[in-house]
Amino acid sequence: MNERAMAREAGAAVAENAPRKPPILALHGVDRHYRQGSTTLHILRGAQVAIWSGQSVALVAPSGAGKSTLLHVAGLLEHPDAGEVFVDAVATSALSDAERTRIRRSEIGFVYQFHHLLMEFSALENVVLPQMIRGLSRQEAIKRATDLLAYLGLKERLTHRPAELSGGEQQRVAIARAVANAPRILLADEPTGNLDPKTSDQVFAALTELVEASGLAVLVATHNMDIAARMHRRVTLRDGLVVELK
Fold this sequence. Notes:
The protein has 246 residues and is α/β, with parallel strands linked by helices. The protein has helices spanning 3-17, 67-74, 97-107, 123-134, 138-151, 167-179, 197-214, 225-229; strands at residues 25-36, 39-51, 56-59, 82-87, 90-91, 108-112, 185-189, 217-221, 233-238, 241-245.
């Protein structure tokens, strides 16, 4: 058995035993709706899901089902209209905006379909900046950013700006940026949606190795069933509810 297969097996064992521990992320009875003219669109209706440290969960559902909404609520970017979001057993609905922002910066990392890198900065600088915003010294931030980018196979690309990187390389920089502040939760919205199959597989492999090495709890919205099949659990959205898939 090769090292990657052993890591996946170890991760599966973590996932199997995870419910014995408190989840790092949990949504309880979450509702989310939007007004569109005179119509109310009910996106989430009592949605519930729990994710434990070291566990990867694929959120597979058609466009318009509410995947991005679920991620935004889970990541404290939007308030639920009802229900509760718990991060490390802390109820977040009554927290101040400043406290929610602190949790997002320290506990949650985000990766999007479009990498949203700062085009005028190098790969290294893109990963350094969020750490300095959090309060790390420039020297500490540079060391961690260098280590992360090297781990993701970008050791020779540190000084390159996004326009000088391939799509897969840009997305690996985005992953490094998302985990630079050592979050405990990683939320990813179609992180390989704009990549060709080979590059998509490479990026997902890098993400998986990083997750398994760090014990992150991961929720990935994806249309890619091959990627979903390689994660510990798969869920979907049906009529605003989170449903486990076998």
